[in-house]
Amino acid sequence: MEYNQSLYGHFKKSKFQIIFGILLMLISFTLIFIIICEKYPIRTYSLALLFLFLLYGLIFITQGKGYIFNDFFGRKSFVHINEEQIRIKTINKEKQILWKDIKKINLTFRSGYIKITTEDKPQNLILVSIIDSEYVMQIKLIIKKIAERKNIELIESELKK
């Protein structure tokens, strides 16, 4: 069993970020309109401010749509799970864990994390809270199937204390 998924465009979507990005772009266009209509002299800091509002507006809109800005610069995010290893790279460093080293997997460790206990490291946390929930469920299902096949201890639910 093998699971390969590029996470490009599959991060959590945020309406707040989209609205904030649109607001920043509206502010920028309003300032451009005021400068043109009122015939204010265009200064360097005015152009820099307009450029920053436009740039940040675009960044917030793209992140709100589920695209991480790092992906545009070649830092690809992906999930690769097969019978030999788990490789997940989101916005932070790539995590690579071999199945033969895994002792225990906690799928419900904390909100947004998968905790994997290995022989050499007691705690490997894989951040999945920024990934769209549909893909998190697929990742957990694949990990569960392979872990059951390899007789690895699996914790799926915890009692609230």
Write up what this structure looks like:
This protein has 161 residues and is an alpha+beta fold. The strands form two sheets. Strands 1-2-3-4 form a four-stranded antiparallel sheet, covered by helices on one side. It has two domains: 11-73; 78-155, Roll (PH-domain like). A hairpin with a 3-residue loop joins strand 2 (78-81) and strand 3. The mean pLDDT is 79. It has three helices and eight strands; from the N terminus they run E-H-H-E-E-E-E-E-E-H-E. It is elongated and about 75 Å long. It has helices at 15-38, 44-64, 133-149; strands spanning 3-6, 78-81, 85-89, 95-98, 102-110, 113-118, 124-127, 153-155.
Structure in a nutshell:
This protein is an alpha+beta fold. Helix content is 39%, strand content 24%.
Number of strands: 8
Multimeric status of the protein:
single chain
H and E order: EHHEEEEEEHE
Distance between the termini: 36 Å
Mean pLDDT across every amino acid position = 79
Strands side by side in the biggest sheet: 1-2-3-4
